[in-house]
Amino acid sequence: MPFRSHFPSAFARVALIAASLCAVAAPVAAQDDAMTPIAIPAQPDAIELGTGPLPDAKTPEAWHRQYGSMFARNVTIATLTPFLPDPAKATGTAVIVAPGGGFRSLSMENEGWQVAQALADRGVAAFVLKYRLNQTPPDLDGFAQSIREMLSGPVPRHRVDPMSSIATLGPQIADARAAFALVRSRADEWNIDRNRIGMVGFSAGAMLTIATALAGEDAKPAFLGDIYGPLAPLDVPADAPPLFVALAADDPLFANGGFGLIESWRAAGHPVEFHFYEQGGHGFGMYPKPTTSTQWFHNFAAWMKMHGWLEPRNAAAQEATR
């Protein structure tokens, strides 16, 4: 799939709003709103995916802190970081975790590492995908200005054509495919069932999750988690996996455009579970909050358990034969 350096304008604005709102819901002090540059943290367990450098990239990877959490931007080399469960608790299920950030940054803690650790605590092998990003200015002031410029003018909220959007995500889909291939290639080592590898994504990462199911060819996720991503209708393939969706009713991006994705999934005869929380905003992730949106991970885990993915794979196989 060819790489394009720019999104269609509607998709670009929605994606960049998502980047600017990735932690709107966080109950943090005002001083945490400021972006502060930080050194790239050590990531000793990160595995390069071999998809190569981002074409024509000139700006190196950099990180910053905001809302009490760490973000990466200008990622040019994709990596996958494993969070493996205690072998005594391992279920054989695995999940690729795709943080959000408008394809301009990645919320590595709130929507990546913390989600993966919570999954590992439940016996699921989790893998944080640090996928390649569209380039932005190297300095934080320039990064912020680029977002402000893109956000100027009317916003076509939720009017995202899924198929044309997928056409812009060549590098990111390649990274997701490589992540699935890597996990399957080391499934025996990591005690993973090759047929029980799902994917969960947040905002832009949710877009990538759906794109991986539609255009990821050999990736073939066993199940999907779409956490506050766009819900535009689309053509659902015959082999689409079960889908879990979580969204807050006060999400400024995607709460007011209908639920076409859910309707499309149901019309195609595939399982879908949808949680529409009264409050939570956009980007709530793993932030502690007094709203019921904080329960999304508990609900996601309960959904996984209902499908047998939190049971040891032998037990799940036995149950399926009854």
In short:
The chain is of the alpha/beta class.
Which parts are unreliable, with pLDDT below 50 for 5 consecutive residues or more?
A: 1-17, 19-30
The portion of residues forming beta strands comes to 15-25%
Overall CATH class: Alpha Beta
Number of domains: 1
Radius of gyration: 18 Å
**Helical run tally:** 10
Say which CATH homologous superfamily is assigned.
Answer: Alpha/Beta hydrolase fold, catalytic domain
Secondary-structure element pattern, one letter each: HEEEEEEEHEHHHHEHEEHEHH
Structural class: alpha/beta
Shape field? globular
Mean pLDDT: 88
Strand order of the largest sheet: 2-5-8-6-9-10-11-12
CATH architecture label: 3-Layer(aba) Sandwich
The helical percent reads: 25-40%
Strands, total number? 12
Structure notes:
By secondary structure, the chain is an alpha/beta fold. It has a single domain, classed as 3-Layer(aba) Sandwich (Rossmann fold), CATH 3.40.50.1820. The protein contains ten helices and twelve strands. Strands 2-5-8-6-9-10-11-12 form an eight-stranded mixed beta sheet, sandwiched between helices. Strand 11, helix 8 and strand 12 form a beta-alpha-beta unit. The longest helix is centred in the middle third of the chain and has 16 residues. The radius of gyration is 18 Å and the shape is globular. The N terminus is likely disordered.
